[in-house]
Inverse folding.
């Protein structure tokens, strides 16, 4: 499909435009694309600890922030409303308080840097740099590409018994993330599935493009199932259902029927992991009656996090303070760690260093101050994003850019649900910042006003009417706020 004629990429490439000119116009987005696509790089074989180290995607995200800073100095970024400044800046204040009040501020400093990267700097850079709906779609397309490649590798791992160990067999699909980060592949596949579902249900896109996106979404169901990740299944079901409902009841019924048919064919017809998948699904309903050890550990760590918060309710025990305080607040039911093996790694027992609940992790380490700053901002983004998708919700509700809203809200809701039983950690953590940034781009208006994101795609001007015309010819950045969402 030609970029020059695809309605989904209108404004990205003009008819006959050479690739070098295209890159000059959109070069600030290259670090954003690299942040997502660098997660295709495999981790060192047998290194389960690599998930906790700075990787290529993290380096790309720092380059993204640097590019944003340069563009800001040159006056070539969007303006932020006071609400945008508050939502994106408040977490930084909470993080600073939690770091300064920690028992060991020096030990808390790496946590401060990581949280600042994921929840402040990367989201702000995306909001400031992404100019219009076409550039938003480019970012979303990177998620789909990442999901397809990682998902294909995961399916091969299941078929050839070269995946991570699960129930004594090396069949768990983990992609390039390895057994040290079993949620990594499931997370990126879920991101791609939600983005593809939103594109398939968007009325403003060409029918051929929507059908292709729908086929991609159905394909990604397979590696998601083979990840055996209960959390990813729950979050994807909830987010996809919301996207389907927001797209319209009639479309919702058609998609639900198609998904049920695919599930019956895969599991019932071809027997794709039918026994293991059935057992995994059944275990979701047994978390209170007959929980397995992983669920028991999770409940124990949740109780420990709550106990830490009660000890210091305002500011918590400090960033990176959960591991040091875990044993003093845990019961004897907590195991020493989780077993990992397979996918090129020998047996290794990994320690449990977080409560596997983002909200409780923030509450225990940052107290009510940090949780209010983070979760309060997320609530604002969710409400604002949903309101702009509602009928009469403003210029972003029109059909030309509705796909951006569905993608942003769908991915953000997936992340919020996932945070109920997972937290940040591993190479895919940097994508959390990208998701928050895309959600903020959709939800936070620019005081500069201007046209809708879709309409702004063709405008590349600088200050003044004559300069705007020149900008369209030279590819210069737009007036701050003029091209924003």
């Amino acid at each position: 499909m030609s970029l020059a004629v695809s309605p989904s990429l209108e404004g990205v490439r003009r008819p006959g435009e050479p690739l070098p000119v295209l890159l000059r116009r959109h070069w600030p987005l290259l670090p954003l694309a690299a942040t997502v696509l660098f997660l295709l790089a495999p981790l060192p074989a047998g290194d389960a600890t690599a998930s906790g180290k700075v990787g290529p995607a993290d380096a790309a995200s720092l380059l993204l922030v640097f590019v944003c800073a340069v563009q800001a100095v040159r006056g070539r970024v969007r303006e932020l409303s006071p609400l945008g400044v508050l939502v994106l800046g408040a977490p930084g204040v909470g993080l600073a308080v939690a770091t300064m009040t920690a028992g060991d501020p020096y030990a808390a400093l790496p946590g401060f840097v990581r949280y600042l990267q994921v929840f402040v700097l990367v989201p702000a850079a995306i909001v400031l740099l992404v100019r219009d709906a076409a550039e938003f779609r480019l970012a979303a397309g990177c998620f789909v590409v990442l999901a397809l490649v990682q998902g294909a590798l995961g399916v091969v791992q299941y078929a050839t018994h070269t995946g991570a160990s699960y129930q004594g067999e090396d069949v768990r699909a983990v992609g390039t993330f390895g057994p040290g980060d079993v949620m990594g592949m499931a997370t990126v596949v879920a991101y791609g599935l939600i983005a593809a579902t939103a594109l398939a249900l968007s009325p403003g896109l060409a029918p051929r493009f929507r059908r292709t996106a729908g086929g991609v979404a159905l394909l990604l169901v397979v590696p998601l199932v083979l990840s055996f990740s209960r959390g990813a299944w729950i979050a994807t079901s909830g987010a996809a259902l919301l996207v389907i409902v927001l797209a319209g009841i009639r479309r919702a019924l058609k998609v639900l029927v198609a998904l049920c048919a695919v599930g019956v064919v895969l599991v019932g017809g071809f027997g794709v992991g039918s026994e293991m998948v059935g057992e995994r699904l059944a275990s979701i309903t047994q978390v209170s009656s007959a929980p397995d050890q992983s669920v028991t550990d999770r409940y124990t760590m949740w109780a420990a996090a709550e106990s830490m918060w009660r000890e210091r309710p305002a500011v918590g025990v400090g960033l990176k303070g959960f591991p040091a305080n875990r044993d003093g607040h845990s019961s004897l039911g907590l195991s020493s760690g989780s077993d990992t093996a397979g996918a090129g790694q020998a047996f290794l027992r990994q320690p449990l260093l977080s409560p596997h609940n983002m909200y409780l992790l923030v509450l225990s380490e940052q107290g009510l101050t940090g949780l209010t700053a983070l979760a309060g901002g997320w609530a604002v983004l969710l409400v604002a994003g949903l309101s702009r998708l509602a009928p009469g919700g403003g210029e972003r509700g029109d059909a030309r850019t509705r796909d951006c809203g569905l993608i942003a809200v769908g991915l953000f809701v997936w992340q919020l649900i996932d945070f109920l039983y997972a937290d940040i950690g591993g190479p895919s953590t940097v994508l959390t910042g990208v998701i928050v940034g895309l959600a903020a781009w959709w939800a936070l208006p620019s005081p500069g006003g201007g046209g809708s994101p879709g309409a702004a795609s063709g405008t590349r001007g600088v200050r003044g009417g004559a300069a705007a015309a020149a900008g369209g010819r030279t590819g210069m950045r737009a007036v701050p706020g003029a091209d924003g969402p």
